[in-house]
Amino acid sequence: MRQYVLMSDRPVGQPSVTVRHEPVQARAAQRVEALLDAAAGVVVEHGIEHLTTALVAERAGASIGTVYRYFPDRVAVLVALAERNLERMRYAVGRVLAQPHSSWTDATDAVIGAMIDTFREVPSFRSLRTGEGLDLGPVARQPVAPLFAEVIAAYVAERWSIDVDEARHADLVLAIGTLDALVTYAFLHDPHGDPRYLELGRACAMHHLVNAFGEPEDRSRNAESEPVT
Fold first, then answer.
1. Residues 141-172: tens digit of each pLDDT
2. Residues with Cβ within 8 Å of residue 29, at least 6 apart in sequence
3. 181-207 residue pLDDT tens
4. In Å, what is the CA distance from 12 to each residue of 61, 114, 154, 196, 200?
5. d(CA 181, CA 188)
6. What is the C-alpha separation between 22 and 102, in angstroms, rounded?
7. pTM higher than the cut 0.85
8. Distant-in-sequence, close-in-space partners of 220: CB < 8 Å, separation ≥ 6
9. Neighbours of 193 (CB within 10 A)
10. Per residue in 11-29, pLDDT tens?
């Protein structure tokens, strides 16, 4: 079975984000991680719009010169933090797809659970997510729904030989995008996730997932066994 851990090949703890001065030594890599941890704390406490390099330096117990050594401005800090958030989401999804699943519904439900857990466990994810909403001028963050759609489609094709054509792939992207929007809203005012919107997200995602992958086998069998009235 192919491994679906969507991380880079860098060692754990070494950033894969683009910074002004790419660290090559372990101590420098740890320093960048500490700066990003500080940035996450600032975002959680004060919001994205109030993040500054000075606040990052103060929270990290570092000089402003240390921050500028790796990040030219506050936007670079936010992009790097968003990229780290994306990698953590990728890892969470890849980890659950590396486990055996009896059906595509089990697999996608595990992916949904991993996504929700990331919102709960990764500081700054609720407000920043993967940076799609960042205002970067002419440079925009790419949407993540197509990225995860490719991974899930590959997994389902390999595991259950379900081919996803262009129309089905569009439904798969809609499933992920709709889920992302509703989960994001669920965590807008509830740090644990409003269960009403989490359940609605699962239901809306399932609608498009059925369009993408077909009726689940157990559902089809139950329909065949029901008496015709």
1. 788 999 999 999 999 999 999 999 999 999 99
2. 13, 14, 15, 23
3. 999 999 999 999 999 999 999 999 999
4. 23, 19, 25, 36, 35
5. 11
6. 43
7. no
8. none
9. 20
10. 333 444 555 555 557 888 8
Residue 84 backbone dihedrals phi, psi, to 5 degrees = -65, -40
End-to-end CA distance of the chain: 44
Q: List C-alpha distances in Å: 101 to 28, 66, 107.
A: 40, 46, 6
Helix and strand numbers (H, E) in the chain are 10, 0
State the Cα angle at 184 between 126 and 56, rounded to 5°: 20
Q: How far apart are CA 134 and CA 86, in angstroms?
A: 14
Give the whole-angstrom CA distance, residue 79 versus residue 55. 16
Domains of the chain (ranges; CATH) run 26-219 (1.10.357.10)
227, two tokens: 């008496």
